[in-house]
Amino acid sequence: METMTLATPVVTPNPVLGGAIHQVYLNPYREDSNIKAFASLNYGGVVLRGLKVVDASNGLFVAPPSTRVNDKWHSPFYIADPAVRARIQEAVLSEYDKLVKKNPPLPEVPPSEVTEGEIPF
Questions:
Q1: For 1-17, what is the mean pLDDT?
Q2: Tell me, what's the pLDDT at 46?
Q3: What share of the chain is helix, strand, coil (3-state, %, to 5)?
């Protein structure tokens, strides 16, 4: 089989992607999951949906959406510019911190204090 060489892509600056993050929307997910929330944002007129706030061993980070195809996970896009990735992550995690501070988790009730048929809140 013959090898193909790819031409070097021509990169032109995009004023839209250099723009500001206008809106961040968060949908909290289950507390017992590593995925803490799903996020969407408007970044200079480009809407990114399906971002995930993930709690990993190194802390929280923002992951792109992914789709399972033939037992492998694929992301529909990749943000190649580290500065753009950092701005998106900072904006989403900042909104997530506000959400967590605004809605703290409910206190757990020890099992000994709950009787059958009683609702603990």
A1: 44
A2: 82
A3: 20, 30, 50
